[in-house]
Structure formats: C-alpha cells, structure tokens
Design brief:
This protein is mainly β and 101 residues long. The protein has 2 domains: 35 residues; 66 residues, Beta Barrel (OB fold (Dihydrolipoamide Acetyltransferase, E2P)). 0% of the residues lie in helices and 50% in strands. The strands form 2 sheets. The chain has a 5-stranded mixed barrel with strand order 4-5-6-8-7. The model has no long low-confidence stretch (mean pLDDT 94). Bound molecules: zinc ion. The site of zinc ion has 8 residues, from loops.
Length: 101
Amino acid sequence: MTITAKYCAECDRLYHFDKYHCMVCFSKNLEEKELNGRGEVYSFTKIHAAPKRFATLAPYNIILVDLEEGLRLTARYEGDELAIGKQVIFSEKVDGAYVFR
Ligand SMILES: [Zn+2]
C-alpha cells in the first residue's frame, strides 16, 4: 500500500491529500504524488479513551510524523517503544487513518 499527497507542478509544492487547489498559485491541477512513506516522529501520545469507531483499538499510540517530503501527518503507530525522532515507515491506511510502524 502506498501513501500519496497532492502536488502542484507549477510551484513544486506538496499538500495533504484533502487539498483541492494550490495555496500559492491557486491552480486546481494538483497531481497525485506517491510518497516514500518514511518519516520521523515529531510528537506522540497514547489514547486511552478513543472515539467510538476506534474504541476497540484503545489504548493505542498517535504520532505526529514529519515525512521526508516535508509534510506533517497525524497517524496511528503500531510497534515498539516510541520516542521523538524515531524513524517510522507507513504501513497501511485503515478506515481513513494512516498507520505507521
Ligand atoms: Zn501552485
């Protein structure tokens, strides 16, 4: 499974997947760009009281990931001990949530 972002070829800028026009040149011709899925943990927290749709997963770790391409994402983390600066990699997208390990 791959992780993608929106890309404006005119400005050479990346945006989160939910953007529909470039914030700089307002071009609506954003392309889908595949990312390498690698990033570094910027921050993290453990969720004990989860929203209903994720309740069966609790407790689980939520991380802010700085992707190598420069975007910052919120994701769920499945793996060993977490630390700020830890290298993580995209694993899958489940119910609209990014999962890293
Ligand atoms: Zn642009």
